[in-house]
Design a protein that fits this description.
Length: 94
């Protein structure tokens, strides 16, 4: 299943890795905010969330870093890219 299909079909949990301030400025409905710098300390919490984790941020850079780290820890996740793109895809229900 492609990234787009996973997002459109609500197959996982959207995790926004931006700062809390950025997240408050706008986010995907239902997304969980776990800032990039908190991911190592919150690894056990993230492992308990419905997977795959769909990681997003402002541009896809921080979510890419988070995807690399979490994948190495055995967490099923994908880089969703920009939260705006993820938000758009969630509105395109199949």
């Amino acid at each position: 299943m492609s990234r787009e299909e996973i997002i459109k079909n609500n197959q996982g949990t959207i995790v926004d890795v931006r700062t809390p301030r950025e997240f408050r400025g706008g986010s995907v409905f239902g997304a969980v905010n776990v800032p990039l710098n908190e991911i190592p300390q919150r690894l056990n919490e993230l492992k308990e969330i419905k997977s795959p984790l769909i990681l997003c941020c402002a541009s896809g850079s921080r979510s890419g870093q988070a995807t690399d780290f979490l994948s190495r820890q055995g967490v099923e996740c994908i880089n969703g890219g920009s939260w705006l793109e993820v938000n758009h895809l969630t509105s395109e229900k199949v």
